[in-house]
Design a protein that fits this description.
The longest helix has 13 residues. The N and C termini lie far apart (about 50 Å). Helices cover about 15% and strands about 35% of the residues. The chain has about 160 residues and is of the alpha+beta class.
């Protein structure tokens, strides 16, 4: 099929779009389906549960656990992210600000701002993480960097 034929096919699909016919097969994704990434992949003591089966086209969903007395790495990414704190308490360094949070709070991280999340409590922190990284992936502009396990005030921002 030529590029023009593909374009015409797509145009026809858009003209005859039926949202119910186009619904994903799986609309309920169990948290037990999370594929857990450990420290050797995350670069910090937190565990991240990838929920790759969520059929969203613009957002990604993760579970995150931060053990007591530990923190994530200092990182930044071009996508937005929101952590919904399910259990535990701690604080985040988001740019030059240090902000406390606990269960029931939502922590917003703006694009390309260095940030790090700390669990300074005695139990684990559990969060749901939502980010618009799939949208940026589809545009070919998603990017993520890690400065490692250092606090924000030790970051070389020159």
């Amino acid at each position: 099929m030529t590029n023009f034929e593909q374009w015409m096919h797509k145009l026809n699909e858009m003209k005859h779009y039926d949202p119910e016919r186009s619904m994903p097969e799986h609309l309920v994704i169990r948290s037990a389906s999370a594929r857990w990434l450990e420290e050797d992949v995350t670069g910090n003591p937190s565990r991240v549960g990838v929920l790759a089966d969520v059929p969203a086209k613009s957002m990604e969903f993760y579970l995150q656990e931060i053990p007591a007395g530990t923190a994530t790495d200092l990182q930044r990414h071009v996508h937005e992210s929101v952590h919904c704190v399910l259990e535990g308490s701690g604080y985040s360094e988001i740019g030059p600000e240090t902000l406390r949070w606990s269960a029931g709070d939502f922590v917003y991280t703006p694009p390309w701002v260095w940030h790090r999340h700390y669990n300074d409590g005695t139990g684990r922190v559990r969060m749901i993480l939502v980010e618009n990284s799939r949208q940026l992936d589809s545009l070919g502009i998603n990017k993520r960097e890690s400065a490692g396990n250092i606090p924000y005030d030790k970051m070389d921002r020159s």
